[in-house]
Structures are given as structure tokens and as C-alpha cells.
TrEMBL record, chain A:
<feature type="domain" description="SKP1 component dimerisation">
    <location>
        <begin position="113"/>
        <end position="159"/>
    </location>
</feature>
<comment type="similarity">
    <text>Belongs to the SKP1 family.</text>
</comment>
<dbReference type="Pfam" id="PF03931">
    <property type="entry name" value="Skp1_POZ"/>
</dbReference>
<dbReference type="Pfam" id="PF01466">
    <property type="entry name" value="Skp1"/>
</dbReference>
<keyword id="KW-0833">Ubl conjugation pathway</keyword>
<dbReference type="InterPro" id="IPR016072">
    <property type="entry name" value="Skp1_comp_dimer"/>
</dbReference>
<dbReference type="GO" id="GO:0006511">
    <property type="term" value="P:ubiquitin-dependent protein catabolic process"/>
</dbReference>
<dbReference type="InterPro" id="IPR036296">
    <property type="entry name" value="SKP1-like_dim_sf"/>
</dbReference>
<dbReference type="InterPro" id="IPR011333">
    <property type="entry name" value="SKP1/BTB/POZ_sf"/>
</dbReference>
From TrEMBL, chain B:
<protein>
    <recommendedName>
        <fullName>F-box domain-containing protein</fullName>
    </recommendedName>
</protein>
<dbReference type="Pfam" id="PF00646">
    <property type="entry name" value="F-box"/>
</dbReference>
<feature type="domain" description="F-box">
    <location>
        <begin position="6"/>
        <end position="52"/>
    </location>
</feature>
<dbReference type="InterPro" id="IPR001810">
    <property type="entry name" value="F-box_dom"/>
</dbReference>
């Protein structure tokens, strides 16, 4: 059930990438600037499709929003040490994949508080570390991965070039073919005339 | 389970990476940016670096690159030293709610490494002007010229410049002259140098906000007049100049030799006023000589603590 977001009691239906729908309160959804910009004033006629994200991720994101509905307005990042027990549990029970999905979804939905807390957690992983220690904490695409990526791109470029060349060749051939009948016609006519002339002179 | 090990930071959307960078201190940003070409590129993409000011310091024991946030809550100083005792040392102190973090790196060739670090930081933080340069001119006397050349080649100007020497016997006149000739100083110049040559003939940079020259015997009345006229009547250009401080000179003689044809008013010694000197400090003065600048502001010349000062108010 969806309706204009005038009342905080209003529930909205959210659609995930699996096509499943679930309810989220208007108050929770209003923490998303993306939602505010898209639907707040006009309402939504059916389920709101956030189909780039799976149900588990969206539920996790909106679980956070529901929880922080009554918190004061967001006023910049909070120090991790100041996070409540609930917040800490919320973050700690996520595995890495879910954590990244939540950041991506939160970034898309533009939920400042959640994005900021997630990013603060990543910054915390790097806090006080020198370059060597950082390498042990984060993964970056390896040289092989980058090389492979470059090769794929080169292959793609080569394939595209080939296609373009073929297309050009085809176009050229077409032009030649178009020209051929005329030339042939001229030649045939010339041959016929020559033959005729010869036959005349023989006669 | 967060924080996980081996976090794939490159899989985050750009805005999330930027948020993460905002939560990191500049030393961590620098450490991150030197991991690989890719991290350097990522670090360079951030849009919030205007919040940082860059402070460079050259002195005997350590060469430093400091990054200060404009709200001055956290300042980070990357020190390069040949002092083995300081290897890997991290100092952190908190004062009035502000945190200052110092990290020391050891190098056999600190100057070269410092130059590389400066270049890297200027590139990453997209800076063309150094906010603050502090130089001990007798620390690396043989290297001063190459150091000034390096700065000239890599930055457009320096906002605030403080020059000093630890041993007043050392002669750094040539280096001082070379610096004034080659670096553009925008706002403040403070010199504690002991210039040996009484005829040291260098022009004082124009359009400064603040000029403090101690041991300023080389600034004769003629040069002072030139400077006063330049700063009092700039033909419609904007006035920035707020404060001048030189060695003691007699107000009567100054009046006689510099202000003789400039309209001025001698304020009675019994009149007390509060005027701003450097770093926005207010002091109480008695008397002084007032002149009117063409923008309507008053410049007061006065003696205090045996120092000749001028404050614009």
C-alpha cells in the first residue's frame, strides 16, 4: 500500500531485485534523500522499485532507518566510540559482502547517517596505519587483474577495430559491386559492337 | 563481522570512498596514496582538500610537511629526519580540543625525501600555494639555493613566511636575498635573520598584510618611506596591510625623515588606545602618530616594548 507521504504512519512498498516487496514506514524512508527527491511530494502508485539491491540488503538498510527514526537530525559523523550498543551490533553482525552492499545501497538512497557511519568504520580500519600496514588491510586490484583487465579492453578495442574495418571493407565492396554492372555493361556493349562491326566488315 | 580483513575498498562507490577519506587524517591519506598508482589516482580525485592548509618547515633536525584542517581540529605533521632516535615515532598531543599528530620517518637524505614528499602532497592535495613556510636559514646553508629553486619550481607563492637563524654569527644574507628575489610572498613576512650587510638592498615584497623584521637596521628611513608611501597610497588597489614591526626607531626622527610631507597627526602621549598587533592580539598604547590612508583607515605608528610598530585600524 502506498500513498502520499504526509503522515509518518504511511507505509510504502519497496521492491527488491528478486521482485519481492516489503513494507517500510514513511518516517524511515524519509531518511533517504533519493526517496525524498523522487517520491515525497508526489507519492507512489505502486511498489517503489529499488531493484538494483537484493531484499536482504534493503531490509538491513531500512532496519537502520527504522531504528534511527527518533534520533536527532543528523549533524555530521559521530565518533565510533560514541555509537550505541544497537549501532555496534548492527554493524558487527554484517559480513563483508553485506557491508559493501549496504554501503552501495545507502549511497544510492543517499542516507547520510548510515553512509557516514559505514565510511567511518572503513576509515577506522586504516587509522594510524602506515602504507605497509594498509596493504594488509585493504585489497586493491592486483597487477595481474589490472593486466587482465587491460588485455580484455585491448581485445575489445581490437574486435571493435576489426568490426569497423570489416564494415568499411563491406561498404567498399558494395561500392565496387554497384560499379561492376555498369562497367560490365559498358564492356559487354563494347564487345557486342565490336563483334557486330567485325561481322559487318566480314560480310 | 566488520571490520573485515582485506577490505576491497575499490569496490565502493566514489562518494563512499570520499566519505571514508573525510574520516581519515591527512597522514593516512598520504600513506594510502603511495600504495600504488591507482590509489594515488583515487586520492587525487577527492574534492574536499581545500579544507587543508599546507605548512612546510625546514630546520636543523627535521624537515616537516604539515597539513592543517581549516577548523584546526586536527593537524598532522609528517617529519623526515636523519635522527635515528625518531624512527617511526608518532607523537600526539591535544591542546584546547585540537589534536596534533606527528609522524617521523627516517632518511639518510632527508632533504631529497622531503622534496619528494612535498611534491607528492602538493600534487595529491592540489595546492599551488604554501600557506606557511618556516625556514631556519642556517640549517642547510649549502642547500638553501636549491631548496628555494625547488619551491619556486613547484609552487606559485607562499602566503606566510617566517625566516630565522639559530646562530647569529652565520651569514645568510645572500640566501635571504635569493629568497626575496625568487619566492612570491603574499600575506606575511617575518624575519629573525641577522643581516650582516648594512647596505642589504632588497625590496620588501608588495601587498603584504603583515611585515615583521627584527634586526632591521638594513631598512633605512628611505626604504621605510618608500614602503609607507606604497602601502598608504596604492592608487585604487586593495589595501591589505595591517601591521608593521621593526626595531626601535625614534618617532621624532621617523616623523622628520619619513612623514615630513605626508599629512599626519601627533597624538598626545596621555591618550591611550587599544590597537591590534600580530595574531590579532590587542595591546594598549599611549600617543603615537596617525596618518590617514586613502581608504579612510588610520595607520598609527608607535613604540611599544622598544619596538617600532604600525597598526592599521
Amino acid at each position: 500500500m502506498t500513498s502520499p507521504a504526509s503522515s509518518s504512519e504511511v507505509k510504502y512498498l519497496i521492491e527488491s531485485s528478486e521482485g519481492n516487496t516489503f513494507d517500510v514506514s514513511g518516517a524511515a524512508l524519509r531518511q533517504s534523500n533519493t526517496f525524498n527527491a523522487m517520491f515525497l511530494n508526489i507519492g507512489a502508485d505502486g511498489p517503489i522499485p529499488f531493484t538494483d539491491y537484493n531484499e536482504a540488503t534493503l531490509k538491513k538498510v531500512f532496519e537502520y532507518c527504522e531504528h534511527s527514526v527518533n534520533e536527532e537530525n543528523y549533524s555530521g559523523p559521530k565518533h565510533q566510540d560514541d555509537l550505541s550498543k544497537w549501532d555496534l551490533n548492527f554493524f558487527n553482525e554484517m559480513d563483508q559482502k553485506m557491508f559493501i552492499d549496504v554501503i552501495n545501497a545507502s549511497n544510492f538512497l543517499d542516507i547520510e547517517r548510515l553512509t557516514s557511519y559505514c565510511c567511518e568504520r572503513i576509515a577506522r580500519m586504516l587509522r594510524g596505519k602506515n602504507t605497509q600496514e594498509m596493504i594488509k588491510v585493504i585489497t586493491l586490484p592486483t597487477a595481474e587483474e589490472l593486466e587482465a583487465k587491460q588485455k580484455v579492453e585491448e581485445k575489445k578495442a581490437a574486435a571493435a577495430k576489426k568490426v569497423a574495418e570489416k564494415a568499411a571493407e563491406t561498404a567498399e565492396k558494395t561500392e565496387t559491386l554497384e560499379e561492376l554492372p555498369v562497367q560490365q555493361l559498358v564492356q559487354t556493349t563494347r564487345n557486342k559492337l565490336t563483334r557486330k562491326y567485325l561481322s559487318f566488315s566480314n560480310e | 563481522m566488520v571490520p573485515p580483513k582485506l577490505f576491497p575498498i575499490h569496490r565502493l562507490p566514489f562518494l563512499a570512498i570520499e566519505e571514508t577519506f573525510k574520516a581519515m587524517d591527512p597522514i593516512e591519506i598520504i600513506n594510502f596514496s603511495v600504495i600504488s598508482k591507482r590509489t594515488r589516482t583515487v586520492a587525487k580525485l577527492m574534492n574536499f582538500y581545500s579544507k587543508y592548509s599546507i605548512h612546510l618547515s625546514v630546520k636543523n633536525s627535521t624537515l616537516k610537511v604539515g597539513l592543517y584542517r581549516t577548523n584546526e581540529m586536527v593537524s598532522c605533521i609528517y617529519g623526515i629526519t636523519s635522527n635515528e632516535k625518531k624512527i617511526g615515532k608518532i607523537k600526539e598531543k591535544e591542546k584546547d580540543g585540537c589534536i596534533e599528530r606527528k609522524v617521523y620517518n627516517y632518511s639518510k637524505n632527508p632533504l631529497e625525501e622531503w622534496k619528494q614528499l612535498c611534491k607528492h602532497v602538493l600534487d595529491i592535495f592540489k595546492k599551488q600555494t604554501i600557506d606557511d613556510l618556516s625556514m631556519q636559514m642556517d640549517a642547510l646553508v649549502d642547500q638553501n639555493v636549491s631548496l628555494i629553486d625547488f619551491l619556486k619550481a613547484n609552487v606559485k607563492s607562499v602566503d606566510e613566511c617566517c625566516l630565522y637563524q639559530l646562530d647569529k654569527k652565520n651569514n645568510v644574507d645572500e640566501n635571504f636575498a635569493y629568497l626575496l628575489d625568487n619566492l612570491k610572498i603574499n600575506k606575511e613576512l617575518c624575519s629573525h635573520l641577522h643581516v650582516k650587510n648594512d647596505n642589504f638592498d632588497k625590496k620588501i615584497p608588495k601587498s603584504l598584510r603583515e611585515l615583521r623584521i627584527y634586526n632591521s637596521h638594513w631598512i633605512g628611513y628611505e626604504k621605510l618611506m618608500e614602503f609607507v608611501l606604497q602601502e598608504m597610497d596604492r592608487n585604487g588597489k586593495s589595501f591589505e596591510f595591517k601591521y608593521l614591526e621593526l626595531d626601535r626607531r625614534e618617532l621624532d626622527r621617523f616623523r622628520e625623515l619619513v612623514l615630513y610631507d605626508i599629512p599626519h597627526e601627533v597624538v598626545d602621549g596621555g591618550v591611550e588606545r587599544n590597537l591590534k598587533i600580530f595574531q590579532n592580539i590587542n595591546i594598549e598604547i599611549s600617543g603615537g602618530i596617525d596618518i590617514r590612508r586613502i581608504d579612510g583607515k588610520t595607520a598609527t605608528f608607535f613604540l611599544k616594548y622598544s619596538v617600532f610598530m604600525m597598526s592599521v585600524h
